Amino acid sequence: MNGEAPNPGAPSRRRGRPRIDIRRLGRAALLGPGTRDRLPDAISHVAEAHRAHHPDADLAILRKAYVLAESSHRGQFRKSGEPYITHPLAVTLILAELGAETTTLTASLLHDTVEDTEVTLDQVRTGFGDEVCYLVDGVTKLEKVDYGAAAEPETFRKMLVATGNDVRVMSIKLADRLHNMRTLGVMRPEKQSRIAKVTRDVLIPLAERLGVQALKTELEDLVFAILHPEEYERTRALIAENADAADALAAIAENVRGVLREAGIPAEVLVRPRHFVSVHRIRLKRGELRGTDFGRLLVLVGEDADCYAVLGELHTCFTPLISEFKDFIAAPKFNLYQSLHTAVAAADGAVAEVLIRTEQMHKVAEAGVIALGNPYVTAETAEPEPAGRGDGERVDPTRPGWLSRLLEWQESAPDPDTFWSSLRAELAEDREITVFRVDGGTLGLPAGASCVDAAYAQYGERAHTCIGARVNGRLAALSTQLGDGDTVQLLLAQDGASGPSPDWLDHARTPAARIAIGRWLALHPEGAKPPAAAPRAPMAAAAAAGRRAAPNAVTDLPGASVRLAGCCTPVPPDAVTGFAVRGGAVTVHREQCPAVTRMRALGREPLGVRWGDVSECRVTLVAESFGRPGLLADLTEVIATAGAAIVSAIVEPPSEQRVRHTYTLQLPDAAGLPGLMRAMRDVAGVYDVSRAQHPTATI
Questions:
Q1: pLDDT tens, residue by residue, 404-430
Q2: Which of these is catalytic: 116, 304, 616, 624?
């Protein structure tokens, strides 16, 4: 989170571009109608701000849009008594200061004409083209929405649909809401409170998601003043009492400038005061504040490599607080934000937080997607992609595509209340992770997401048949939480008969997963059928199974009978050893069997054992698998095809959709054992087959 406000008093040295000064926006005044040969005086503020970011911009279309807007709104007034045209002008100026491109500014000037005047969308399309018409139509749909408390769920469902596949619609809406919040004082207190709550719950998180920090921070302060007036006044008084706090940061900033000058690193070092909400949060976190807590240092450089060079100098010449270091350049935040965060202590012990970024990173940190200009211009043709949804979906410029996810799952939300709660939960997530798929793709998920969330993010409703996952190459339960950078492979059942367990809802964090699981469970109240399992063998069958064929092992103890240990089921050509037991018999174990270690520790002398000429053998195999219908039949078919006879079989009850099969088999030839185990591993759903290693109490 970028928790500081711009510093209006700082000199601007950014290659001729004025620094964003959000506090002075919205003050455009109507100075006269202007002539046909030049821009109207009232829009000169917008033209100046726009040219600062886009020196070659064609301003003719802005003049044309202003003339239409001014003539259409003539005679209309806001509740404050100002001419209505001041509102679209202020909204457009906000966007121009943030670096929006000409098409967005044109649509912003016209954003209320279709809703509040006689102007039609066809007129907008004819005069300004499809792109402007698409944006105006999207904003108009948002304006038609009732913001009453009972209508809020459908309000924001419509907002997402209206935003469609163009984030510029939401950018205009956010600037529109900012200007309305600035002038909210003319409304009744209860209406102020209602609008402020909606802004807090949805529009501010959306501004955060779009990375438009300059709008977000001021909206936070305006909402804070309305909903928490006492805390706001306390914070305002605290800032006023510490008006000289900037001096402490200014002294450290001068030291930083000197260090970077000596290192030959060209950089601009600024003091960035925190905005009200940021100061309030810091006070709650730290208690009594120091002078340096009221702001941060911002270091602007030219190249990415310079950011790390600055970091190295600061950590060398000052005492760094390593716990405060964060690298959002190597791992950008989900809203395009990039910067290095650190904190250093000066010689007098004063600690200053420092942000290090390039000029371009700073522009994006302030303006987010607005700084991208038209994010839908293709690199090959430099032409915008078609605006209409019917012409194909555009690439989502947000990282890593959260807007597309919202648009997808909102269509599946069964009712407005589910949509509303899911939307608020989605927007409340302030951190995302990126996990990699085995096919090379990536998935963007909220922090704390599990394999269940990854399954639905990758496969949609096909994830109902998910039976397990591998995380970083290792088998993992579906409840496993994923970390940033993990590689996940989702394993799906071959048939479509299986479905999600109600337990999955306990592990799902994303709305898409929860909505899909809930819908499936509602349609299948009986739940997913458990995988087919063989009952444990009854006592009579077990007794029959115990009549084993004579082993093909020979011991050095004359006249002794030989039996193969059930704990490790040795077969040729395993290295084996034996131990004498009661009754004059010898039990044969594999050399690596844990029982051998225990017997030797007890002082029991091993006996020599060798394999005879008979190749037939008996072995116990354990198959670990994901439960699914037909699995037992497939395994027994593979065993039969290999010519092995099943002496006994046990299938344990499923646990987290995993099933353990234990087979005691009579093989005609021990040489066929490796091939049989490979064939069993190839059965769908089976992830491991191993020789049994059962502990035994006695030998």
A1: 666 666 666 666 666 666 666 666 665
A2: 116
